[in-house]
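Your task
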Amino acid sequence: MTPQDTPEKSIPLKIIPLGGLGEIGLNMTVFEYDGVILVVDSGLMFPEDYMLGVDIVIPDYEYLRENKERVAGIVLTHCHEDHIGALPFLLKDIPAPVYATPFTIALVSHKLEEKDLLSRVDLHEIKPRESFSIGPFHIEFVRASHSVVDGVSLAIRTPAGLIIHTGDFKITHGQLDDEATDVSRLAQLGEEGVLALLSDSTNAEKEGYTLSESEIGATLEKAVRDSSGRVIVALFASNVPRLAQIVNIAAKTGKKIVFNGRSIEVSMRIAQELGYINVPPGMQIDVSEVKNYEDNEVLLVTTGSQGEPMSALARVAAGAHKQIKIRDGDTVILSSKFIPGNEKAITGIINNLYRRGAEVIYEKISAIHVSGHAFREELKLMMHLTRPRYFMPVHGEYRHLLHHARLAEKVGIPKNRILLAQNGNVVNFMDEVGWIGESVDTGRTFVDGKGIGDVGRKVLKDRRALSEHGMVVATMVLDFDTGVVIYGPELLSRGFVFEDEKGHLLQDAQCVIMDAVEQLDLSGPDRIPLIEAATQQALRRFFNYVIRRRPVIVPLVLEV
């Protein structure tokens, strides 16, 4: 059956990924039925190497702006930045109600309060196995194990059928704690009949199962016990299960514990208020008190495991932290995965820590981090539990999505029911038939300082040219009445050539400009744009011919 064969009275369910399909991060998915829009997640991405000067990247959600009156709610699967980081930007434009688990709501509240948005937004706490409705969508939270607490998958009942959106998840073998993925509920949903499964693809290339947190805990405890000096553990502030492990290890080993870094202090406060972590009385000390204890009595927990330049760990590695100075015998543990694109910054910090005398333990040399994303056997189990009619891989680069799609085919899902979509594709479901239809405009929006979206590819191209070849400013002053050059051309360069080479080269460049200007008709009103264009063209050719460089040429022409 094709879409054209379906009855005219039927209304399609539309699923539109605005981010997260083709990259790690930017997770945002639109569900739309009969004019009502539900948004799942609103994440950011760290800038890639070519995005010079960019602070963060968020999805281009122009489609939501154009349909803001139809956005009925925003549902968050968990509190990682790649799922909630763009939320303040989205809510400034579209103040829709937000639904999430208690820990996620607490972190989002703090984030919105910083942006003076908290009073404008309705926040709704929903616990796993609780349900709520947003227009025609009836949504149930299903517990999902991840590297945060309170992560959930979504069972979204729509008039077109039941959709399972896994969010980020793993199914660790033998895990029985309260944060384990609710496989029994997923199996019940599978019995009910699942129209489509949207499943996390991040680790679709990795065979087997993820390691259990208990194995990582044993490795961390050994590293802490073996250290003769202070221990500094760097991790994601939102990784509450790992924070709880470290608190327990500090208690076992009789160490005082310090939480240093604004984000980790916020996470610890919320985790303790909600009962996820219990720090024994007298064990926690302030960073200013570290000097009062022997080195082997102190365990510090901080942020900066991804090489963030302003993080506490980066300042420690650079010797710029006011209270923490690395000494021989200190052990630094980076208990997180290297996020693609951050490797260079992380290895720079590791090298600096080694130079200052620390022993550094990280994922490439020791099992001190376990992924929060399912490996292939767990991905197969999710398919077996839910038994979907259609399968759609989400959350990952294209290679991850493709490997996940091939895995689904091996499990037995027919190839024509595997929807390998990309950002912007409109995935339709109607009368139990699914297909990829038209597309909507989407992309990436760069946030640079307070500017949102004002940095585009042209600006990035100029920044790269400046970083690689420098800049030359050519200044000239014309007589207003005659158009005759009465001053200049004066050339100023930055990041282009060494001082001892500049004189001869720039003198020749001045002659090149004058030769180009003398060939122009300067009697018309558009002489300034003509001179600027001719100057740019002449200098580009000259510098490329003489020294094979392409500096950014900035002509500045004035009339007096």
Q: What stands out?
A: Residues 527-547 form the longest helix (21 residues).
